[in-house]
Amino acid sequence: MERPDADALDRARHHAQAWLDGLGTRPVYAPASLDELRQSLGRPTPERGLPAAQVVDELARDAERGLHGSQGGRFFGWVIGGGLPAAIGADWLTAVWDQNACLHASGPAAAVVEEVAGAWLKDLFGLPAEASFAFVTGCQMAHVTGLAAARHAVLRDRGWDVERQGLSGAPPIRVLSNADRHASVDIALRILGIGTDALEPLAMDDNRQVTPEGLSAKLAERDAPTIVILQAGELNLAAFDPFAQLCPIARAAGAWTHVDGAFGLWARVSPAHRHLAQGIELADSWTTDGHKYLNVPYDSGLAFVRDADAHRAAMTMTTSYFPAGGGTARDPFDWNPELSRRARGFAVYAAIRELGREGLADLVRRTSRHARALAEGIGALPGAELVMVSDLNQALVRFGDDARTDAVIAQINASGEALFGGVSWRGRRCMRISVSNWRTGEADVARTIKAVGAVLAG
Ligand SMILES: Cc1ncc(COP(=O)(O)O)c(C=O)c1O
Question: What does the similarity note say (predicted)?
Fold first, then answer.
């Protein structure tokens, strides 16, 4: 009997294992040029179909040189986690089961697994038990979700029903923000129709933290529906705002506080790092990623909202072809910006079970230790300068001047030994070090420092 599914899955299993086994020897940086990839993957529109296993084999062959080794321990670009084995396994099953995690009725186990994992996450992060949540594609969509709830609440407080009336004619929303916010916040504001003109930067101190005085002064300037955007883990410094001081000030003024915790929210799972995000539970909405620190394969983002009614009002809808609710089941579509959607909860559930509270704390501790060791080791090399090491998993180094820094980054990446990105920070080009992968170990750190040394000596 023909079993195309078995053949295709066998081949995928083979290629997947070969990929993971080769992480130590393959170049970390995808070696293929754009032209080469267009050559290897580009074909005329297929007229006739092919056996499934052949399609899988050829995809693995043709894509391989265009794949970064981001699953490996020497990938330090952007903020990118790897995939924990249980999370990868659960992600494969998610594809095979192919549940539509829109409703409990369309994916019963998918809906319940989100219910369970959402409660675990609130417990791990120390967020209010009554907070609602959504499993989305990434922090970007988590911002859209949390800020849609914020938009609802601050306008509801002014007697305006934004879901029904829209934004035309609504009292203009003011968004007071940490000036170092990630660009994904701006995109969310654009998508939500609030617009980036609504943004007003808040005064920051030398540690790039919003100051209580600055927030109070801004709030006192005028009476308006207000959202305050704070940061848990800024992209370069991993700076955290002083939530315990700021959130009560915002609340007293009737403002909604939204926190970008794309990777920084995970500091809460480590007793050694929890103090960095002290008081974060006092905010109104929080976002983070599963595909960064939790090491869940892409894509996985998470939004949490204290005012569950505002969250639900911003996302839910009714239609006659959905089974009537009213039971106790949690329907993801009440909380998510999408209707039909991948059952993302399975991989998050599996990752948390694989690590447990202790393993998560250890992951944050280890990655922070490795980031510091990399920064100090590279910074001590002739021709290198340690610019900054954060208390979490981010650091910056620099090599001579701006041009030299960019050239060194390019040479390290071209060596295939490690991958780093560059950034302009306080007017100077730097190399970013971001350690988020569960696989990174001492040997990776030592091998990377040696590779950077070879480039600098070369
Ligand atoms: C601080 C911060 N916020 C938000 C984002 C956006 O997250 P995503 O790419 O998962 O949408 C990132 C991504 O690197 C980030 O570092």
Answer: Belongs to the group II decarboxylase family.
